[in-house]
Amino acid sequence: HQVILSPSLFNPEEFMPLDPTQEPIFPPELLRLKDTPQKQLRFEGERVTWIQASTLQELLDLKAQFPEAKLVVGNTEIGIEMKFKNKLFPMIVCPAWIPELNSVEHGPEGISFGASCPLSLVEKTLVDAVAKLCAYKTEVFKGVLEQLRWFAGKQVKSVASIGGNIITASPISDLNTVFMASGAKLTIVSTGTRRTVRMDHNFFPAYRKTLLAPEEILLSIEIPYSREGEYFSAFKQASRREDDIAKVTSGMRVLFHPGTVQVKELALCYGGMADRTISALKTTRKQISNFWNEELLQDVCAGLAEELSLAPDAPGGMVEFRRTLTLSFFFKFYLTVLKKLGKENPED
């Protein structure tokens, strides 16, 4: 079999002779590209315009000019909607190059991730933090890592962004329950404005909706350090163990008064039990100042059964199974906290 080289593309006589003692090097011109300031890229088709923004101000200006533009980093959500649901998005903006959206900062209250940070970077950063920090400060980080452990494959985690996961506002999101239960702080910006909001029960007002105005973008999320006397767990139940969409997800947090098992704060957040990520506020508010014992366990389970009811024709089906999961998740959290407290019998 003879290989025929096209003379129109190059002149073989210009090549340097191969030296078998030398390793081929990576082209220096390509290495220098990473230090070159990025410029805006723009592709216009008949139905879609795609823009790669190079600076934060450029992105904010584009959002002000095109409020309905979709921001795409990993394309793990928009790509599916375009391919399988035949949705059309006339304006797509990619913010993946912007330094502020890719930064990681270790602050006094937690670790802040730019909204474009891929989940693989979030995972690596939190693994390092768990190894270096005091155990009591990393309860929330371990909860995030537990969800990321079952979150898609490496290829998806390498491109899917933490901000995209939040703003997609999926009612069965694996991570939003964890962020809501932990009280993560979100920094939101637009042209001329900047605000920080806590991710709580008000952040998702309706199905696939968030508190962000059309011209606003999510700049960063701060995942907080846990405090002494604070315990956190995350749960997910799916048909398959790995790489599957959840039936029910949950993030749970309890903070005790110093030196006691008296509840100071309690957060129980669920995905898959409504058209958005929700917090069981009626149930948790009744438990403030109660002690972590079997009476609390019974009260919470009764409260959850009443508060997290599903209609028989609820989307996703498996209504009784999902309702049972909400109780079993809390029972598992209750036992986990007792074990961490070193108490098998809460009356001890």
Automatic annotation (TrEMBL):
InterPro entries: Ald_Oxase/xanthine_DH-like, CO_DH_flav_C, CO_DH_flav_C_dom_sf, FAD-bd_PCMH, FAD-bd_PCMH-like_sf, FAD-bd_PCMH_sub1, FAD-bd_PCMH_sub2, Mopterin_DH_FAD-bd. SUPFAM superfamilies: CO dehydrogenase flavoprotein C-terminal domain-like, FAD-binding/transporter-associated domain-like. Pfam families: CO_deh_flav_C, FAD_binding_5. Its cofactor is FAD. GO terms for molecular function: FAD binding; iron ion binding; oxidoreductase activity. SMART domains: CO_deh_flav_C. Coiled coil: none annotated. This is XDH oxidase.
